Structures are given as structure tokens and as C-alpha cells.
Amino acid sequence: MTLTHFDAEGRAHMVDVSDKAVTDRVAVATGCVVMAPETLALVTAGTAKKGDVLGVARLAGIMAAKKTADLIPLCHPLPITKVAVELEADEALPGIRITATVKTTGQTGVEMEALTAVSVAALTVYDMLKAAEKSMRIEGLRVVLKAGGKSGTYEAAP
Fold it and tell me: Which PANTHER family match (predicted)?
């Protein structure tokens, strides 16, 4: 398998997608922020000092997906048609589970946009709760679904 972001001389370059078909594309990424039960209680009770942790993190994730091409050097700017970021408190973790779904109709996929949305949402959760707990961990960032385009559908094992 060759890496598409390198030319024949091994130099990094942006992949030419001009010959690719325009298709509907979707990507779903997940991750979580693991924290102490007491920190999670601040989120679920709505008593975190900085306010609505999940609402702010949701907006941050949406904004991040739209800015992915500004952050990742070889990503194409894409006409994103949907970004949904879901954050769910999970006492069994304990922490916050994050899922981002990104859609476009274009010549390249939106996996990086979905991963960026989850990453920034998780960083925002950390930022909003760090006064209560600095030992939180961001874990499990991965693409769980990719559909559309020449390579077809990818679905991660559970």
C-alpha cells in the first residue's frame, strides 16, 4: 500500500482529487473523556463553574469540524452538509462519551472532520472541568464508520 500524501520523491503534497467522483460521504468518529465520578456529577448536576459543559463542547466540536482544513495541513476544504456532535454522560466509564457524524457531497471523505470534532469536543470538556480535576484522560479516539467514495464502506469492529 502506498501513502497518498507523498509524491514519487517522498515529499508531502495535497492529494489531487479532481478525477474522483462526487458522491455522498459520511464519517462517524468516537472518543471519551474519563474522569472521577465526582467530576462527572458536576456535569450531570449542571453545577460546573464554567457552565453548560456538554452544550459548549457540542458547539466547539461543530466549529472544529468546519475548520479542519485550517488545522490539518493536507486536508481539503470541504462543503460540509452536516455536523452532529453527541455527548453523553456515562457513569460506568465514568465520563463523557462523544460521537461526531459528518456528511458531505464531494470528492473526498470527512473522516478527519469527524475526528477533529470529537477531539475538540473532548478538549473542551477537559478545559471546562480542569479546575475540578486535572487527571482526566481523553481516550479511544477513532473512526467507527466511513461510507461513500471509491473505497466503499468501512465499519469498525465493536
Answer: CYCLIC PYRANOPTERIN MONOPHOSPHATE SYNTHASE, MOLYBDOPTERIN COFACTOR SYNTHESIS PROTEIN A
Q: Please check whether residue 16 lies inside any domain of the structure.
A: no
The CATH number assigned to the domain holding 143 equals: 3.30.70.640
Q: Is 76 annotated as ligand-binding?
A: yes
pLDDT, one tens digit per residue, over 127-136 is 999 999 999 9
The range of the structural domain enclosing residue 36 comes to 23-155
75 assigned binding-site residue = yes
What is the residue-wise DSSP string for the chain?
Answer: ---TTB-TTS-B-----TTSPPEEEEEEEEEEEE--HHHHHHHHHT--TTS-HHHHHHHHHHHHHHTHHHHSTTPPP--EEEEEEEEEEETTTTEEEEEEEEEEEESS--HHHHHHHHHHHHHHHHHHHTTT-S--EEEEEEEEEEE-STT--EE---
101 falls in which pLDDT band (50, 70, 90)? Answer: very high
What is the value of pTM for the model shown?
Answer: 0.91
The catalytic position among 7, 52, 70, 127 is 127
In a domain, 133, yes or no: yes
For 26-56, the pLDDT digits (tens) are: 999 999 999 999 999 999 998 777 779 999 9
Catalytic annotation present for 127: yes
Query: Residue 113, annotated ligand binder?
Result: yes
